[in-house]
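Progress note, sequence design subtask.
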């Protein structure tokens, strides 16, 4: 399932939480871990004189090597095979090219939380990778540098699978159930009915009824597949603002992982990343596994 996991790192404070979750995935599937850090090209440093460019470059390389070394140390502590790489280039493009080069099955990255500057759009390397990667991406909120989790502290016992019945959601559910089966996790399947439709005064009751039936059907499709795999599963139809309902539900069941498609039936304008998925990734305190 996940034989080769790429972990891009840049030395950001709080990255240990993302690293721990990535290695927990690798531990469960006995995957090889590739730690990648991307440094600036000299062309990106044109505003500096030659000596300054070289000094910045050396500092960047030192930081990159330290970042990949942190992953390697943590991986070796849990007996995982690890490969370190430092590449030059633009982060998103270089990460995706390296993922293709090594045949990565999963990319696991840290993401910063919602701030004032991110309130409209996440705009991060992580989001761009999620939108463009052909393989699943695990995004993990950067943790408190003063209290980073250890790999041994990370368990994946409860997986939340939001669905809307779309093809992308079905593929994401298949991935999630495959992983849940490998770790024996409980699965929670939900469909979030958008409150905005209910609030329309002229929305025909027949349309609302069809949406409810469609939601129940989408839930049942995933839940039956989970049961066929021998998994414990719960079903819930939610009503409200989809991303908020998903996040509140994840909190309520103490989900260890949210697994969802990059785009739903409603599409999205966030450069290929569906709006609900984008908002969940942006706000989630819990790891989010996205699949195209």
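Output:
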């Amino acid at each position: 399932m996940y034989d080769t996991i790429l972990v891009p790192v840049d030395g950001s404070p709080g990255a240990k939480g993302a690293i721990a979750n990535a290695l927990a995935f690798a531990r469960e599937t006995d995957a090889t871990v590739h730690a990648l850090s991307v440094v600036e090209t000299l062309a990106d440093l044109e505003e500096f004189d030659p000596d300054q460019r070289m000094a910045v470059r050396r500092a960047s390389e030192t930081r990159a090597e330290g970042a990949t070394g942190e992953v390697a140390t943590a991986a070796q502590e849990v007996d995982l095979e690890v490969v370190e790489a430092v590449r030059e280039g633009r982060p998103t493009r270089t990460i995706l090219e390296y993922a293709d080069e090594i045949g990565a099955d999963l990319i696991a990255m840290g993401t910063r939380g919602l701030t004032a500057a991110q309130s409209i759009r996440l705009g991060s390397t992580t989001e761009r990778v999620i939108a463009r990667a052909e393989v699943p991406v695990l995004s993990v909120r950067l943790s408190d540098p003063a209290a980073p989790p250890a790999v041994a502290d990370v368990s994946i016992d409860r997986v939340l699978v939001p669905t809307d019945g779309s093809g992308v959601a079905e593929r994401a559910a298949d991935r999630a159930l495959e992983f849940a089966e490998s770790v024996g996790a409980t699965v929670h399947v939900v469909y979030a009915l958008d409150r905005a439709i209910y609030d329309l005064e002229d929305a025909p009751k027949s349309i609302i009824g069809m949406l409810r039936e469609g939601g129940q059907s989408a839930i049942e499709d995933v839940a039956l597949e989970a049961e066929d795999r021998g998994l414990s599963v719960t079903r819930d139809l939610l009503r409200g603002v989809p991303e908020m309902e998903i996040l509140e539900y994840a909190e309520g069941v103490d989900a260890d992982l949210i697994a969802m498609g990059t785009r739903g039936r409603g599409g999205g304008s966030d450069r290929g990343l569906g709006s609900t998925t984008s908002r969940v990734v942006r706000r989630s305190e819990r790891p989010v596994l996205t699949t195209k």
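The longest strand covers residues 186-194. Work on this subtask will continue into the next period as scheduled.
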